[in-house]
Amino acid sequence: MQSSTLLLLAAQGAIPKFDYALFADTGWEPERVYRHLERLEAAAADVSIPVIRVSAGNIRNDALDEEHRFASMPLFVRGPHGERGMARRQCTAEYKIRPLKAEVRRLLGYPHPVRVPSGVYAQQAIGISLDEVHRAKDADVRYMRNVFPLLDIGWTRRDCRAHLTAHGWGDTPRSACIGCPYRSSSSWAEMKATAPEEFEDAVAFDAAIRRGHPAATRSGMPMRGNYYLHPSRRPLRDVDLGIDSGPEPEGCSPWACRGDNHEPTAPDGENP
C-alpha cells in the first residue's frame, strides 16, 4: 500500500519524479498482485517512469528443488518433543534484497563485481509511513542512500489508503508470497474464499515442506522437527481458519525487515 502510494504521488507530481521504480518478484505472488503491478506499470509509463521487475527465480519451485540451494523461509517448526520455534528467514534477502541491489548497481553503471566509486550512489525512496517509522533504516551499502517521502509529509497508512481510494486504487493488495508464513488465519481464510486455487497451491506446498528441504532428506541430514505455514503448527488444510490467530504479522518489505534477513556485508562494505 505505501509503495503504491509513493509511486502514484510521484506520477502525480506531488513528490519529485523517480527515474525508475523497482519491483522484486519472487515468482509466487497472488494473481491480484500481478494485475495491480500491471496497472501501476501503465500509470507510471504515462509519466515516463519505467517499472523494472527484478527476480532471483521462483521461490516456490526453488524451495522444492533438490538441486537448488535452499534459502530458508520463516516456517513454523514443531520439534520432536513438541518444541515450538521458527526457521530462520533468508528468503527476503535472496529473493528481494539481493536482486534489487544488483539492479541498482547495474543502473549506476557498476554491475558486480565492478567496484562502485566513492561518492557514486542512488537515492532510493522507500514506502514507509509514519506509523512504522521504527522500520526506517539507512542503507547498508555506500552506493544507496535511503529517503522516506511519506515520513517527510507525515502520512500514515490510513492516509495512504485514503489517497489510493480517492484516486481509484482502493483495492490495492498486500504484496506477499502465496505461501508466506506471515499471514493471519483471517488472511488465509480470505485467500481460501476469494482465490481457492492459490489456497490449494499453498496447501500443497505446506504438505511438501513438512520435513524441510528435499535435499536435506536425500543427504540424510537430521531434521529438527516438522515445518508448517500456519502458526498453529498444523497442516494448513486442517486448520480452523475461523479461530483468531492474532493480527496480521509484519510482512517482508525488502527494506523494512526485522533483524535477521539482511545479507552479510562484505569486508569492503559493498554487497554483491
The tally of strands reads 7
Per DSSP, the total helix count is 9
Secondary structure category = alpha/beta
Catalogue the unreliable spans. 258-272
Task: Briefly say what this structure is.
By secondary structure, the protein is α/β, with parallel strands linked by helices. It has 9 helices and 7 strands; from the N terminus they run H-E-H-E-H-E-E-H-E-E-H-H-H-H-H-E. It has a single domain (2-261), classed as 3-Layer(aba) Sandwich (Rossmann fold).
Can you walk me through this structure?
The protein is of the alpha/beta class. The chain has a single domain, classed as Rossmann fold (3-Layer(aba) Sandwich). Helices cover 33% and strands 9% of the residues. It contains nine helices and seven strands; from the N terminus they run H-E-H-E-H-E-E-H-E-E-H-H-H-H-H-E. It has a three-stranded antiparallel beta sheet, with no helix packed on it. It has a two-stranded parallel sheet with strand order 1-2. A two-stranded parallel sheet has the order 5-6. It starts with a helix and ends in a 44-residue tail after the last strand.
